[in-house]
Amino acid sequence: MDSPDSGGGMARMEFNPARLALAGAARRYGRAALDVLLPPQCMSCSAAVDAPGALCAACWSKIAFIAAPVCACCGLPFEVDAGPETLCGACLAKRPRYRRARAAFRYDAESRRLVLMFKHADRLDPAPTFGRWLALAGAGLLADADVIAPIPLHRWRLLWRRYNQSAELARAVGRHSGKAVVPDLVVRHRRTPSQADLNARERRLNVAGAFSVNPRHRAAVRDKTVLLIDDVLTTGATVEACARTLLRAGAAAVDVLTLARVVRPQVRMP
Ligand SMILES: [Zn+2]
Ligand SMILES: [Zn+2]
């Protein structure tokens, strides 16, 4: 994978009450006003950058981008290169339903802030940058994809959050790849409690049977390779449930591309 560029300068802004007031006004009057009144800020800290949705060089250097070698199936990064077809212990023990998963960076204290900001802070300006990173991390998956679809949110949660961050990521990846994006390909017809405090088994049970393929898009799934997009791959329970649903509906294969991925220490394979 190429090095994703930070696309930003380094000058750090001091705390400035006037700037905060302006930002408040711009939130009320719209993004265009913000861009006119204030230079764009790093999406993680307050440093000035060249364009909205960029990271300053200091923040960018702290993001642990994932590069080969990785598990051929789940994309877990390896410390030692044992060949392109090598599988991690977990995938050797039980192969996931999806074919391949890849992620742009590790989910850690640094990147968590970025992901949560995108998820909960009502900020869409990082979407183009995230789309570029996803397109780099998932170049091999995108080449094989027939259709791109986000992991869906239940509509109540969608109303609460106002947008589905995975759908925004899917659209951004679609713009980079020219592949078709179908935001409502998979629907979540059961509201599932948040996965945050659940262990792997509980997560699996929590999402079992929660998804179905939108009847309007059955033809878009049959014999097709579907690329699922989500923000974070944790235990993989959600993408597994979605992949199972898509394969039952006749998909030829399901790949998974996420912004971040939890990397737990595990026994290294020979
Ligand atoms: Zn920064
Ligand atoms: Zn694996």
Determine the number of helices (DSSP H or I, runs of at least 4 residues): 12
Question: What is the chain-wise order of helices and strands?
Answer: HHHHEHHHEHHEEHEHEHE
Straight-line N-to-C gap? 24 Å
- The residue fraction in helices comes out at 25-40%
Report the sheet with the most strands, covering strand number, pairing sense and barrel closure: 5 strands, parallel
The main sheet orders its strands as 1-7-6-2-3
**What is the residue-mean pLDDT, rounded to a whole number?**
82
Q: Which word captures the global form?
A: globular
Structural class: alpha/beta
Listed once per kind, the bound small molecules are: zinc ion
Instruction: Enumerate the spans where pLDDT stays under 50 for 5 or more consecutive residues.
Output: 1-15
Total strands? 7
**Relative strand content:** 5-15%
Radius of gyration: 19 Å
Detailed description of the structure:
The chain has helices at residues 17-29, 31-37, 57-62, 89-93, 109-120, 127-137, 139-144, 155-161, 165-177, 200-207, 218-221, 237-248; strands at 100-106, 147-150, 180-181, 186-188, 211-213, 225-233, 253-261. It is of the alpha/beta class and 270 residues long. A 5-stranded parallel β-sheet has the order 1-7-6-2-3. Strands 4-5 form a two-stranded antiparallel sheet. Helix 6 crosses helix 9 (165-177) and helix 10 (200-207) runs parallel beside helix 12 (237-248). The chain is globular and about 50 Å long. The structure holds zinc ion (ZN) (2 copies).
